[in-house]
Design goal:
5-stranded antiparallel beta sheet, alpha+beta, 5 strands, rod-shaped
């Protein structure tokens, strides 16, 4: 009878040993899935925030180009300050440069650059300005990064 109890105890010990690795494996899978979900949520939020910042920078740069277009329309002999000018727009700003007779005579090139949190957006606009009339006509408008 003593032999049966010992074999029974040995069987009980072996059953517990088989369950322990299963519990560790399931716990590891739960931790791995949790870390994966946290990583995916973080990258999704980060990418959407980066897109919003990039679009803000694009809008600020476009506002700077529109401001230069207005200045050209009001003053046909606009001579820009040497390095350009900074246009504050809310908490942000656009650095605007106007180059007369570029790329050809009677044309002007406007370059507006805005940088928000390392996201830089640039607008390049070329306008036609005949020296006789001074009428400003947009030739091209392009966004660059």
């Amino acid at each position: 009878m003593l032999g049966n109890q010992c074999s029974f105890l040995n069987c009980a010990k072996r059953d517990g040993q088989a369950v322990l690795p299963l519990i560790f494996m399931m716990g590891g899978l739960v931790v791995l899935m949790s870390l994966t979900l946290v990583f995916l949520a973080y990258t999704f939020l980060e990418s959407s925030y980066g897109f919003q910042i990039s679009e803000k920078a694009k809008a600020v740069a476009a506002s700077g180009a529109y401001d230069a277009l207005l200045r050209l329309a009001r003053d046909k002999d606009l001579s820009e300050p040497a390095p350009g000018y900074s246009l504050p727009i809310g908490n942000y700003s656009a650095n605007v440069s106007v180059f007369q007779n570029s790329p050809a005579s009677d044309q002007a090139t406007i370059i507006s650059v805005s940088t928000i949190l390392n996201r830089e957006r640039k607008v390049v606009a070329v306008v036609s300005r005949p020296s006789l009339t001074g009428k400003v006509t947009l030739v091209s408008w392009s966004y660059a990064q």
